[in-house]
Amino acid sequence: MSTSKYTLPLENTQWDLVGAGVTTVFNWEYDKARDNLLALYEKGKTKQWNANERLDWSIDVIPSNPMGFPDYYVSIYGSDIWNKMDDKERGTVRLHLDAWRFSQFMHGEQGALICSAKVVQTVPDIDSKFYAATQVFDEARHVEVFSRYLREKLGVLYPINPHLKTLLDQAITDSRWDLTYLAMQVIIEGLALAAFGTIRDLATEPLGRAINAYVMQDEARHVAFGRLALRDYYPNLSEKELDEREQFAVEACYLMRDRFLGEEMWDNLGLGADACIEYVRHSPIMQQYQKRLFSRIVPTIKAIGLWGPRIQQAFTDMGIMEFAELDAEQISKADEDVAAEFDKLRAQRGAYVNSVIQSAEA
């Protein structure tokens, strides 16, 4: 990808080499494996897909409103800044907001690609190595589709957000394999699932919706992988070790909450980050959106047993404790089922197009 397409200097956020004191772990006991992870591995093998075949890249996207959201989904909608804009200026904001959002998805998926490769190298269990290997290919595909959508349909790209970069740094550099799981499989991908879901469920642009639906189908397995592996591992840790993980999770969740403020985007548009962020922080619809982002994280954190007073207090302060009662497994199943519905719609659309062509040729 040419860096000339980026809206901001890439060197401001790019990093090429991250020092991680990683120990490669071999496991020679090939018959010791857990049935639930082997079942997930089997699903990972059978659910692979080709983005060139499953997605209709011929669909045109309207630059002034790529996702087809109503205006009240623009995070500064209703502000004095927004009210003073004309239609062209508002179209520019919509384009950059969606480009910034998809750019962060793309960067996060590359982080997941690197992290899942690291898991193959560092995790001690052979069944976890098997599944993580399927995830590596999933993440490569996700980088591919988000990159292609940005380049071919939007034409605008943003470098990685500083909050996301900080958490990825921590996930990659920590030598403990379970911290990589916790950061990537539970927190980053859990948050991404909820963000993808907003586009899948509420946007009207069909290609962007389909991309998010199909990526979510994969990500639901990834979060399940992290939940299963850590649920088995954390009961064996000491109180001090669990306390370290809990503190890490608290800090990571606050980082991810602030990830969607988009300060660098507002500055790039010349709108002033401080004024925009102040409005976004107090916007009722953005507050609801930020809460929804944690709908996958909270029940998963609880399910893996990382449920001490510090994490519960943080979730209470963030107003997201209500998600603790959700069933993480049911949410994952629903995400996979929705992707199957998109396949049916794609097949119906293909059949309709073929019938029109046949009628014209008759």
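Above is the first protein from milestone M3; the second protein from the same milestone is given next.
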Amino acid sequence: MQLPGPGVFGPPKDRDGALAVLRTAVDAGVNHIDTAQFYGPDVANELIREALSPYPDDLVLVSKVGAARDGQGQWLPAQRPEELRAGVEANLASLDVEQLPVVNLRIHHESDVPFGEQLSLMIALRDEGLIGGVGLSNVDIDQYREARSRTEVACVQNPYSVADRSGQDLFDACRSDGVPFVPFFPLGSAFNAENPVLGSPAVQETARRLGATAAQVALAWLLHQAPTVLLIPGTSSLDHLEENLGAVGVALDAAADGALA
């Protein structure tokens, strides 16, 4: 999400740098990349294709549908069945793949398209072989349970962080069900002037005590919550990529658990 230009709109300021981030991440062992056709729009997928195609056998590209952009970069819902299908087809074409391992259905709660109708289309796309699994994004607990009653859920991508636990019930349900949980904005939203994650006194103090950065502590805390947590900390720089990858080496002790509880 951070590879296109400011506001996830337009080309990156440093195209070569964006390509280097992708290649370095995969060389370091990253095998799960989160993307969307509407990141840019069209920009993120094109960068992924140029940097990584032909793709490593173990690389899992996960995209999402349910949104669009206008000419000014505004985010728009695109949740009618024909829009969802067009979104999947656009992702396949831009990434140059015959099937996407997982596509997340991103929900806009103000949309007048029933959730069940959207889910039916995603199941049909899976049955047709265009996608390997149906994921969910920005859903509530009732939508998650409805989806689970109808199909296997490949993953859930919702906001969750040390500073935002408003979706704790959904996180707990996924953990209990063994469904991978992909917290978006794990380091806080780049769209907000203040960052409640990296600016958290508890996170900062824990980072100082453990000799880590605030970002590493915040990511380590998420990994500590469940073995099924998959992290997608967006970055556009090699320095931040290296910092984020270093989170796997941060061991949180009892004092950290208490401070961040």
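Note on the second protein: The mean pLDDT is 96.
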